[in-house]
Amino acid sequence: MHTVIDSPLGELTLVGDGEALTGVYFEGHRRRPAQETFGPRVETGFEETARQLGEYFAGERTRFELPLAPRGDEFHQRVWAQLAEIPYGETRSYGDLARALGDPALAQAVGAANGRNPLCVVVPCHRVVGADGALTGYAGGLDRKRFLLDLEEPAEARLF
Question: Which residues form the Methylguanine DNA methyltransferase ribonuclease-like domain (predicted)?
């Protein structure tokens, strides 16, 4: 089942299995599954997810507390678990995540798994940057990635 909510980044499609959130997708999301795989559109069942996303976008929430069930192989699951551990307002490189997984040579594989994260925003793949701190690919587009990183920047670090 799925629903669509408005956000400061455009419409977000929320997908669930009745027990947990399985997907959060932007309009134009790269690697977005086919719409028919989302199940029927519903008007109820995603209130808590919508509430927490609203709090996040308002700057009132730094961590999501939702039942999650992303679908992916074991390696993807391990990478997504690492993403979930990146603190609000901080970034990590693909190499950092590869080292955390025990093999620095996995940086490219980490990047591929990061790009397949089905729970954008909630599992913060936007917090992963290049080794030099540069913004790199984001399934929702670099403008959305910049927006999310700016949103999480501490107020005292903002100049204007």
Answer: 2-70
